[in-house]
Amino acid sequence: MPGLLAETSRYVPSVLWVWPFAAMLLAIALLPLVRGVAHWWERNTSKLMVAVALSLVTLGYYYFRNTGLELHVVSPPASKDAAAPGGAEAHADRPHVSAPGLETVVAVLRYAVVDEYIPFITLLFALYAIAGGILVQGDIRATPFVNTAVMAIGAPLASLIGTTGASMVLIRLLLRTNAERRYRVHTVVFFIFIVSNCGGLLLPTGDPPLFLGYLMGVPFPWTLQLWPEWLFMVGSLLAIYFVWDSWAYSHEPPERIALDYQRQAPVRAAGLVNVIWLLLVVLAIAVLDPHKAVPGTDWKPWPHLREAVQLVLVALSLATTPRGLRQANGFNYVAIGEVACLFLGIFITMQVPIELLRIKGPELELTHDWQYFWASGLLSSILDNAPTYVVYFTTAGAIHPPNLHYLAGVETATGEISIELLTALSCGAVFMGANTYIGNGPNFMVKSIAEQAGVKMPSFFGYVGYAVLVLFPLYIVMTVLFFHT
């Protein structure tokens, strides 16, 4: 479980020091639109330069401020019984206040990079690289029914092998299928909505926030209880997409439809050995938690053994995949490199807003499930959804409204957590990660792959426009149907 930065009782950071994080978001949103800068920004080295520069500003703030940080780790107890899913209870280790200056900077880097960024990017890299070795060949007719069926398959797959894994397996097939069509942007956008985000709600392996919830003691199969919310969101998006794509298909030039009909090839899969490596990645995520004993044993894995195993599985994938298969798949490391550069800056610069949330969060008096749905969701749109989930998970433990039901055997650092609030913040963090390109890791990867395939993807704000038009009405309906305590 990643370490968390907690506030000292004597110091609240100024909200003005959120500006490096805001600047990071604005760079992602605006630089691609600025003439003369857009071409420079396309290079991952340029993104890394901006990320490092803004990160250094944030680290400079922590170095020169005159107070340290109260540090603690939220983790389950070490008993054998607690190691099994459903038996863990979260607790806070004894806090330690870092000394101002270098020790505080080291603490920030430890939590932002070592405990959060490295596990995050390693998981994305492993799923991206291994899934890239699965070549789903063929070119089927790009009808609304076929496109909808691909996304319907991808939604449950996202819960099993993660939103990143499912996205990488299916996006290239979908792009090849629609290569002859003129109107393709909406298809990629809905793919991000459904496969890269909303589909991952049913298992902790589906999305990083749910994985952190599992590490904090939420039983592994508990998220399966969220199937009504999952079915509503995924089903609604599939229905909306089918209607939208049917309209777009009817407006395609006849010569493009004819060309699509002529260029058909049966679907075949190659590199299926990578399915084994993907499943082993999922297994490593589930059992190699350094704060828990491996089920059935008293042994707790070494720190970052989980990440090391994932990298070994990537190496095995590269060694066992037929040579040339990834090239035929159009695979390269540009998309994951873009995510790695941008999220390095996001993870470091967001430490100040996260610290503010931890200090002021309990004062917000959030007592209703709909508040957790919207608060966790909207923040997940601009912050990484994993630490946002943890903040509201902890906040929910401090709130004990009457008439709620509490999850047996699960406690945060501040107390028991109710099923209603946990359901709401889980749905908010996962679903609203689709609101922006930076809300969830696969979003940027799919965007980058689509652009390499010739799809002119919308700008940052253009994509947000799609989300406002399609997703927000569904969020409102979901609030009425599911979140009303």
What's a concise summary of this model?
The chain has 20 helices and eight strands. With 485 residues, the protein is of the alpha+beta class. It has one domain (3-482).
Task: Output the radius of gyration.
Answer: 22 Å
- End-to-end CA span: 30 Å
**How would you describe the oligomerization state of the chains in this entry?**
single chain
Number of helices: 20
Q: Report low-confidence residues grouped into runs of 5 or more.
A: 73-93
Tell me what portion of residues adopts beta-strand conformation.
5-15%
Structural class: alpha+beta
Most strands sheet: 4 strands, antiparallel
* Average pLDDT for all residues: 85
Task: Explain what the structure shows.
α8 (208-215) packs across α17 (385-397). The protein is globular, with a radius of gyration of 22 Å. The chain has helices at residues 19-30, 38-41, 44-64, 80-83, 102-131, 144-177, 185-194, 208-215, 227-250, 254-262, 273-287, 305-320, 325-328, 334-349, 351-360, 369-382, 385-397, 419-431, 441-452, 460-482, and strands spanning 3-6, 70-75, 91-92, 96-97, 135-139, 265-270, 406-412, 415-418. Helices cover 60% and strands 7% of the residues. Mean pLDDT is 85; it is low at 73-93. It has 20 helices and eight strands. It is α+β, with helices and mostly antiparallel strands. The chain has one domain (3-482). Strands 1, 2, 3 and 4 form a four-stranded antiparallel β-sheet that branches. Strands 5-6 form a two-stranded antiparallel ribbon. The longest helix has 34 residues, at 144-177. A hairpin with a 2-residue loop joins β7 (406-412) and β8.
